[in-house]
């Protein structure tokens, strides 16, 4: 996600940070590069222009130029502008109404609408403990209703029994009745898609909306279609009252143009991002975190949430306590190595941690099965004292560790370097002040 932009921007900022003082020309030149980076990421031209104009105006202010860390200030300004462009706030899903809360899913065929409906149902039932009913109103595509029923069984969510011959409005009515009578909190309506935005589709959507009075109308669009996705959203928004957008296939979208321009162009917030085919590959869209990730500042909060789901609570608490002090020793690294496997590999972690983005490739490699066994062997060959205070590991100890684990001294060095990088990242985290929140979340 956003790899193109992220790489380009980190190049621009590295050059800025390398300088002691900045002139107005330096800042303007950097901002021109930011603009090119945005356009390369397929951001709509007017959005890129507005972004750069606003950011430049702030960045050439005296405060920045006189500051002792002008480069950092510029990064902060671009960060804030990104948040503004993406958000600016996390758009929550509104389901706290007199039940059933109706969520109408709309979108073109193939956008991932049915998959997203099931993912959202799973999230609402498992995470938010809601009693959820799904109904497919797609009578145009053969087997569409069965597809939703199959997914429903997969995610353990009820689907409305299929009755042949009913039209979408009739199905919606029946679904509303069932939901009321059987005490469902949320009703998800998966409407029919079409190949293009056309009159018949819009008429059907409006009729369903009039009959079911949805609290949320979510448009599902494929992020891979870039600016087309934004245009589709504009088309839908002109016809029905959309409450938000779900961008699918973000996992394959290196450019992110749709995500970056959606809010500015359509005025509609992105509420969720689809990040894979699996039923749990749906993330709430947090502009702050996404902006942080794009700028390589790390998405610590998402990381922690993900960790909290997979890591044993006691381990997490221990780690949080240490992290809060900016400490991260080799025992922690060892625990991480074991846990990370379950969280999608070290590479995924590196991508989210500040300053570690560049190490992503290396860590992906390091986390493959065999390499992990080697790392574990080296860590086991160390004494408890060495793991707790790695700086005691001198040349002689390195030779002993290498021998004991059947690895080379170079490999021991590599392991120590990896630890140092991570320790550095933890220290930066602490400085960033994000740890209060982090510790609080772990401490729960
Ligand atoms: P619909 O026609 O809009 O209902 O589309 P479907 O829900 O049937 O999805 C079409 C295909 O896209 C399926 O193979 C899904 O598994 C896939 N898909 C949906 N969302 C995502 C996503 O976020 N990432 C990836 N990689 N695939 C997705």
Characterize the structure shown.
The protein folds into three domains: 3-86, SRP54, nucleotide-binding domain (Four Helix Bundle (Hemerythrin (Met), subunit A), Up-down Bundle), CATH 1.20.120; 101-294, Rossmann fold (3-Layer(aba) Sandwich), CATH 3.40.50.300; 300-443, 434 Repressor (Amino-terminal Domain), CATH 1.10.260.30. 44% of the residues are buried. An eight-stranded mixed β-sheet has the order 3-2-4-1-5-6-7-8, with helices on both faces. Helix 13 runs parallel beside helix 22 (435-443). Helices cover 59% and strands 9% of the residues. The protein is α/β, with parallel strands linked by helices and 444 residues long. The site of guanosine-5'-diphosphate (GDP) has 18 residues, from helix 6.
CATH 2nd-level architecture of the largest domain: 3-Layer(aba) Sandwich
CATH superfamily caption of the largest domain: P-loop containing nucleotide triphosphate hydrolases
Quickly count the helices.
Answer: 22
Radius of gyration, CA atoms, in whole angstroms: 25 Å
Q: Largest sheet, if any?
A: 8 strands, mixed
At the fold tier of CATH, the topology name of the largest domain is Rossmann fold
Bound molecules: guanosine-5'-diphosphate
Order the strands across the largest sheet as they lie in space: 3-2-4-1-5-6-7-8
Task: Indicate the CATH class of the largest domain.
Answer: Alpha Beta
Query: Could you spell the SSE succession in H and E letters?
Result: HHHHHEHEHEHEHEHEHEEHHHHHHHHHHH
Q: Look at the structure and give the mean pLDDT.
A: 84
Number of strands: 8
Query: Which segments are poorly predicted (pLDDT under 50) over 5 or more consecutive residues?
Result: 435-444
Measured by DSSP, the beta-strand proportion falls in 5-15%
- Shape call: globular
Tally of distinct domains: 3
The helix-and-strand class reads: alpha/beta
Distance between the termini: 30 Å
Percent helix among the residues?
55-70%
